Amino acid sequence: MTQLSDFTSLRVGGPAKNFVEVSNEAQIIAAIEAAGGSPILIMGGGTNMLVSDTGFDGTVIRISNDNIESEVDACSGATLTIGAGQNWDDFVETTISRGFAGLETLSGIPGTVGAAPIQNIGAYGHEVSEFITRVRTYDRADKKVRTFTNSECNFTYRSSHFKLEKDRYVILDVAFQLRQGEATTPITYAELATALGVSVGEKSSVIATREAILDLRAKKGMILSLADHDSWSAGSFFTNPIISAEIAATLPEDAPRWIQIDGRVKTSAAWLMEHAGVHKGDSVSGARISTKHVLALTNSGTATATDIASLASEARAKVKAVFGITLEAEVNLVGINLQ
Questions:
Q1: End-to-end alpha-carbon separation of the chain, Å?
Q2: Which of 33, 87, 173, 241 is most deeply packed, by most CB within 10 A?
Q3: Are residues 88 and 147 in the same domain?
Q4: Can you tell me the distance from the alpha carbon of 228 to that of 223, in angstroms, rounded to the nearest whole number?
């Protein structure tokens, strides 16, 4: 049997009952239908999942379709249709090299294009939903191709219709609308502004912004490296909590706060962890909190999925005990639960 640890960024995960690699739309649909009503697990880069040590008792479909279609207009910019299996950061780099702006703050995020809308990935003040025009999927329930407009995707913070309707839709390709230009929109994150040498609210070069973000992510252990076990992670393990204004008022004055449109408040999961007694380098057997960033739970080389889940559960329990806030996993938990 194929060991899923060979295909995940955390290097953990047991065997798959069935494992299929597909590289075009027809193969994707055929593999889904061949699985019948049995469980399926869609994999792209394997970068946002924690798979149990017992593996997956169903069919794992690893998607690598990476076709790119584009329509460019001097006034309106570009509409790019990208296969779900395309590496996300390679795609971002391509858009910038072609003179398009918008995705630069999402540089360095691991994974594939198909995973991006499911999680509504985001960083440094932007989310991918700002640039998506439509998502084509295969609907397992109705057994047909179905296209979603941006509004039909129901994007919210780190979520979407596809995440809420788990296992029903398999993403085939994603269409993006990007503008032509060499400058970013105003920089809203102080950390990024400092790295760029500009003030918050000022614009910067798209190319310089990508380089700065790649550097910032590397310093936080968020750029995968085969040689650096401190980067063997699934990225940010927990999402930043969005809490009521009443709960936010109970946090210490220096706790980060970002007011949301609905009046709720987003705060920093990393800040909560650090102030609840979670430390860089904390470990459970082979699982370790990155020495670079507390949100990255890593495999130091000998970790099991159980080790990583135990470490995550310990961190979550500390935050709950100190602040009364339950952190939610950003990674896809496959056959495993947190305590």
A1: 29
A2: 173
A3: yes
A4: 10
Average pLDDT, the chain: 94
| Alpha carbons 139 and 171: distance in angstroms, whole number | 9
Cβ–Cβ under 8 Å, residues 138 and 145: yes
The single-letter DSSP state of residue 159 is B
Expressed as residue numbers, the domain containing 298 is 229-334
- Distance in angstroms (rounded) separating the CA atoms of residues 336 and 338: 7
Residue 187 is given by DSSP the state: P
Is residue 224 assigned to a domain?
Answer: no
Same domain for 50 and 77?
no
How far apart CA 285 and CA 291 sit, in angstroms, is: 15
Based on the domain organization, do 72 and 212 belong to the same domain? yes
List, in order, residues 6 or more apart from 161 with CB less than 8 Å away. Answer: 148, 152, 153, 154, 169
Q: What is the Cα–Cα distance from 290 to 49, expressed in whole angstroms?
A: 17
Q: Round to whole Å and give the CA distance between 87 and 89.
A: 6
Cα-based torsion angle of the residue sequence 54, 239, 92, 50 in order, rounded to the nearest 10 degrees: -10
For residue 291, pLDDT over 80 is answered with: yes
The rounded percent of the chain whose pLDDT value lies above 90 is 89
- pTM for the model stands at 0.90
pLDDT in tens, 268-289: 999 999 999 999 999 999 999 9
Tell me the C-alpha distance between 330 and 269, whole Å: 11
Q: Would you say residue 162 lies in a domain?
A: yes
At residue 206, the 3 state secondary structure works out as: helix
Catalogue the active-site residues.
Answer: 158, 236, 330
The answer to whether residue 223 sits within a structural domain is no
Number of domains in the chain: 3
Domain boundary among 195, 216, 237: 216
- On whether residue 287 sits in a domain, the answer given is yes
For the chain, helix (H) and strand (E) counts, in that order, are 9, 21
Please determine, for residue 92, whether its predicted confidence score (pLDDT) is greater than 70. yes
Q: Are 12 and 51 in contact (CB under 8 A)?
A: yes
Rounded to 10 degrees, the C-alpha dihedral 16/21/26/28 comes to 40
Which domain CATH number covers 110? 3.30.465.10
Q: Which of 63, 87, 109 is the last residue of a domain?
A: 63
